[in-house]
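Entry 14. Ran structure prediction on the chain below.
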Amino acid sequence: MDVKIWALLISILAFSLSLITFIRTNVWFSMVFNARMLSFKWSEKDNRDQCECKFILSCSGNQNIYIDKVYLNKGDTDIVSSDSLPSDVKVLLTPGEIKEFMFTADTSAFSHGENHTFVFTLISPNADQFHSALSMKTKEQYRRSIIVEAESFGSSRFALSSFNLIDILNLKQARARRNGN
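Output, structure tokens:
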């Protein structure tokens, strides 16, 4: 091959790599939130029975995520309502960061043999709000025990990137409605 052809191929390759790097750095964004429940245990504090749920929260995108609150719902509903039990999280996750969070609630919030849903409120760097839900199931108890045990732990994942065009359009419509109110 001729030297001019090699020079042309190398310059095209260098231009392509720089274009990909530019898009990845300045145009493409990704917001990925992951949550996993690690433990569910019964404890007593100040003569009150409590359930403690330990979560691991992570951000695997390239955008920061602020987790404002978590709500506990009985059943499989992932809608936050007046019946939801709120708890402050107040955690800022930077890309690649993993943090532990402990959710504590009175034992009356949990029942035997039922599904329970934790709904995390996420806030993006441009102040958009999202929800990510995680479900768990408690064991059925046949004897008269007040202690509730977990049968299965849940995990949750929320992802949004600049190339999810449908999600971006829905987000812009929701933002326009919110600004109109």
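The two ends are 66 Å apart (CA to CA). Will compare against last week's run tomorrow.
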